[in-house]
């Protein structure tokens, strides 16, 4: 039996939560880096024991820490992600590292990082030193893509959802909040937008009726781990799917969500063995955009047919007066035969289901605000 | 000798030491103080000064009783340099 742990990044540090073979008992261990803002805490699926953590602070500049012993000890990057002077003379400064992605399985020392303000960085030495992906950060259209620094979340613009295609190590995708989805087929040297079909209702419609090529606000983008053609993304303006074997335009599968719930949210996860099965956690994106569970009734919505229909999964969650938000890195699946699905909330609760979302149990209830959950499976 | 006082946010880098001294040649600047700290405590500088040499937004630095925002400020022997985590957050 493999050992399963949840890696939890929070606004006040990081924790791990271990479980037994039945996933019935959970052991919380930590904190690590208490007081630091941990936007993302990731296990390396290529090398057992390697973990990486983005560490920020209300005061100090950003950094990245690496562990090679399952989080028992940590080393700080000697050269954390940092911007050079832009070709237009702008001197941007990394505020925090928001996203971490292990590289392709054939490149075990490669990692990617997305930052706020938005930038893409790469390490080829296991996270010790980081370099800008200049094809992206210094792209001549970069400042047009992203808009201004106001075009992001209240906590700043985020570069997120960095994806390395498992079938092609040169193929990278990422999401810009705001800016849209972009991809590269040459390991980051050149980039193109991938936003056709995606709504952008926070901008006026173009007078000629055409679509905006970029400027969108994807919240979370995923590629199915077995089928690189199958993409999904949760956007500020709805929930979308794209099957690249049949077309190039995103389809708003969120139109198939219950109208009273809507299709706004942050996270989206897929079943690791079934490209048609996904889970989302909708939030209230109406009126003042409270970004809470719609009507205070938290629920996961699952589609088993690629988004043609959705079922509500809420057994175990509070039935009313629970005003959670689940951030974009705060939902994960574990890959077990009876699939585990996990989510962390804005009020520090971690919930899990070991039957693919049918029933939910509280795992931890009193952590700080949860920013990320990742699963570590080790021998 | 310049005396340097660090905030608690940085004491992971200094094994808990928050009062240090730095020997610098005359004509040195606050940037030289930071460089001397970095020489001794690898990684500390980037946490308080960004990649373009600017003091980070939520860090304050004092030379004597004067708060400064520019690392080019001269420091003299017997100056007191204090780095502070600004009162912010929650």
Question: Mind sketching the topology for me?
Answer:
The complex is a heterodimer of chains A (379) and B (90).
Chain A: E1 3-10, E2 13-19, E3 26-32, E4 41-43, E5 51-55, E6 63-67, E7 75-76, E8 96-102, E9 111-116, E10 120-123, E11 131-132, H1 134-137, H2 142-146, E12 158-164, E13 172-177, E14 180-184, E15 192-193, E16 218-223, E17 230-235, E18 238-243, E19 265-271, E20 274-282, E21 300-303, E22 311-313, E23 331-333, E24 341-344, E25 350-353, E26 361-364, E27 370-378
Antiparallel strand pairs in A: 1-2, 1-27, 2-3, 4-5, 5-6, 6-7, 8-9, 9-10, 10-11, 12-13, 13-14, 14-15, 16-17, 17-18, 19-20, 20-21, 21-22, 23-24, 24-25, 25-26
Chain B: E1 2-5, E2 19-22, H1 30-40, H2 44-48, E3 59-63, E4 66-68, E5 80-85
Parallel strand pairs in B: 1-5
Antiparallel strand pairs in B: 1-2, 3-4, 3-5
Give the total of domains of chain B. 1
N-to-C span of chain A: 8 Å
CATH C-level of chain B:
Alpha Beta
Which CATH architecture of chain B is right? Answer: Roll
Radius of gyration of chain A: 19 Å
The low-pLDDT segments of chain B are none
Q: What can be said about the biggest beta sheet of chain B? A: 5 strands, mixed
Helix/strand class of chain B: alpha+beta
Helix count from the secondary structure assignment of chain B: 2
Main pleated sheet of chain A: 4 strands, antiparallel
At the fourth CATH level, what is the homologous superfamily of chain B? Beta-grasp domain
């Amino acid at each position: 039996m493999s050992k399963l742990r949840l890696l939890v990044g929070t606004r006040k540090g990081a924790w791990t939560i271990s479980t037994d073979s039945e996933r019935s008992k959970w052991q919380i261990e930590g904190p690590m880096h208490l007081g630091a803002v941990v936007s993302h805490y990731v296990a390396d699926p290529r090398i057992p024991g390697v973990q990486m953590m983005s560490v920020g602070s209300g005061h100090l500049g950003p950094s990245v820490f690496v562990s090679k012993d399952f989080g028992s000890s940590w080393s700080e990057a000697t050269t954390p992600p940092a911007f050079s002077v832009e070709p237009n003379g702008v001197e941007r400064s990394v505020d925090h590292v928001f996203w971490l992605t292990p590289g392709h399985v054939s490149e075990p020392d490669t990692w990617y990082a997305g930052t706020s303000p938005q930038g893409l960085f790469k390490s080829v030495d296991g996270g010790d030193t980081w370099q800008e992906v200049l094809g992206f950060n210094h792209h001549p259209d970069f400042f047009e893509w992203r808009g201004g620094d106001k075009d992001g979340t209240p906590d700043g613009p985020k570069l997120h959802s960095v994806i390395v295609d498992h079938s092609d190590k040169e193929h990278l995708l990422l999401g810009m909040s705001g800016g849209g989805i972009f991809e590269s087929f040459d390991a980051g040297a050149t980039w193109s937008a991938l936003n056709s079909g995606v709504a952008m209702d926070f901008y006026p419609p173009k007078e000629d009726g055409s679509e905006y090529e970029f400027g969108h606000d994807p919240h979370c983008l995923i590629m199915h781990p077995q089928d690189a053609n199958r993409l999904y993304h949760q956007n500020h303006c709805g929930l979308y799917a794209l099957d690249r074997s049949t077309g190039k335009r995103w389809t708003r599968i969120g139109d198939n969500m219950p109208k009273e719930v809507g299709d706004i949210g942050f996270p989206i996860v897929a079943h690791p063995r079934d490209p048609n099965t996904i889970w989302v956690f909708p939030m209230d994106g109406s009126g003042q955009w409270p970004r809470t569970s719609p009507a205070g009734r938290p629920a996961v919505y699952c589609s088993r047919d690629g988004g043609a229909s959705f079922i509500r999964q809420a057994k175990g969650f509070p039935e009313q007066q629970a005003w959670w938000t689940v951030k974009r890195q705060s939902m994960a699946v574990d890959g077990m035969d009876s699939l585990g699905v996990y989510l962390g909330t804005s009020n520090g609760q971690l919930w899990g289901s070991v039957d693919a979302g049918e029933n939910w149990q509280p795992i931890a209830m009193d952590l700080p605000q949860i920013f990320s959950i990742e699963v570590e499976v080790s021998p | 000798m310049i005396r340097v006082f660090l905030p608690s946010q940085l004491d992971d880098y200094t094994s808990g030491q928050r009062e240090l001294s730095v020997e610098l040649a005359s004509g040195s600047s606050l940037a030289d103080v930071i460089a001397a700290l970095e020489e001794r405590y690898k990684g500390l500088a980037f946490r308080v000064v960004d990649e373009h040499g600017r003091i980070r937004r939520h860090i304050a630095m004092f030379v004597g009783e004067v708060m400064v925002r520019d690392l080019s400020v001269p420091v003299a022997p017997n100056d007191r340099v204090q780095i502070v985590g600004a009162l912010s957050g929650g």
